[in-house]
Amino acid sequence: MARLSPSDVLGIVLQPIDKVSEALERKLGLFSVVILSLSAMLGSGLFVLPSLAMMELGGGESPLGGIWLAYLFAGLVILPGAISKSELASAMPSSGGAYVYIEKTFGPIIGTISGLGLWANFMLKSAFALIGFRAYLWVLEGILDISINLDYAVMIMLSLIVGINILGAKSIKKVQTPVVLISVGYLLCVCFWALATSELNWDAAISRESLGADWHSFSSTAALVFVSYIGVTKVAAVGGEIKKPSKNMPYGILISLLFSIILYVFVTLTMVITVDPINYVENGHSREDPIYIFALEVGGKTVGVIAATFAAITVVSGALAGIMAASRFLFAMARDNLLPAFLEDVHGRFETPHWAIIVTGLSMAAAILFLPVHDVAELASGFNIMVFIVINTCVLVLRTSAKSHWYDPAWKSPFFPFVQIFGILGGLILIYAMGMKAVIGGLSAIIIGIIIYQFYGSRFAKEEITPWETFRLMMVNPDEVEHRRRWAAFHAADTEGTNHLNLNEFIAAMSALGYFDPDDEQKFSILRDYFHKADEDDNGIIDIDEFLSYVEETTFQD
Predict the structure, then answer these.
(1) Is pTM beyond 0.85 here?
(2) Which residue in 61, 114, 409, 410 has a CA-CA distance of 20 to 30 Å to 162?
(3) Does residue 296 sit in the same domain as residue 435?
(4) How does residue 552 score in pLDDT terms, banded at 50, 70 and 90?
């Protein structure tokens, strides 16, 4: 029998992750990753949320201009999660993103809960973007002196972006690339014009009063604007459609995050030092069209109209990317038998999960029609903060248990584990600051996820030892972890299913366990001697008991 190489056995011993459906074509490069990520962020987070954040910072009584620091803080808190997600994406470049990472780390029941929470998170973020579209459409309606049924208009737009999503990710890229570049370019021009022509009121942005009454008001504002950054990693949800994912996903995620932090801080700082924050409020409520107000005040009606038009287009672009990402969670969960199989169907012509996209679109319609805008933003932020806490935990668990499992990322997080610990602590602070709404949102996802798993997913889920179980055992019983790893190596090397190993299979199992390099002839000779000592009855084979007994009682480093 031919000698098995360590790589032959490692493919079996180290648990492989599920392969993404071959029906999804890898079309997206680094530039596409950055554009998809930015377009998912630079919609509602920039064109709708600043005025809501000003009121949140002011405790709901009056708007305050220190929101730029809240955006900066939120960006720094999300940075560890983005780094962790970059590492996970390089190890598991499949559609489903964070759901796949969590499910493969913690098992199917936690995977079901996280998948539904992530889907709801991205769906709500996209709904929030279309709420912003409705606000800017209302502005344009008044300017153009036309009558539009705004609810009908939003539903028509939602139908169109569902259709574009079904046409495929490449179609979305073609729409988003010019939208993002032109909109951001125009907004930056307005900002530079405002700085050059306006009287700058720095006290509105950097005075002690502008930063809120206390730490809680500031941190709750940072938690609210956290949703602005979730697009930075949305692209991981379509990892199965990205070329060279081990390179393009990490670099695309980190490049777009750096750019977005700078952009958010610069734009919001300019908005408050050039225009009195009170202008972003009407009748005691924050306006949902702050970029229009900003452009109108610093440049006049024409500049304001153009800004409102670009804003409307950009938030729609964000909804496009959001639906694409959200639908991939349903697709991935159906692929893992945690949701009905029809959600896994891929369109024969367009190669997209069309039923998952349609279900996501219908859910967005319900959120737009029945949920208040502030609640939509808070729920989306709360879900996402919780997810990023778990994502950082995934890297801690997988790195610790990697010796016994399949985890081998092509790109690794720097400063491990300090980056992940900082991300977990920062997320917990923001969750505390958000209060009960975040807790209620998280509990809802947990309860619904458990119900769906018990009534559907549990019938199909395969029982297996997860990295989380291994991690827990390493804390309380490391000997049992090694025992399991050796047991798995024996059965992986027993390719004929005879429940015993010959010399070549024994060598492959020991090499997979990392005790020897079989290419080293001297060590191969030593390993052969060990085999004959373990073969107590001298029949040329060893069974599982002989293997475990000898391996666990022998020091192979001698």
Answers:
(1) no
(2) 114
(3) yes
(4) low
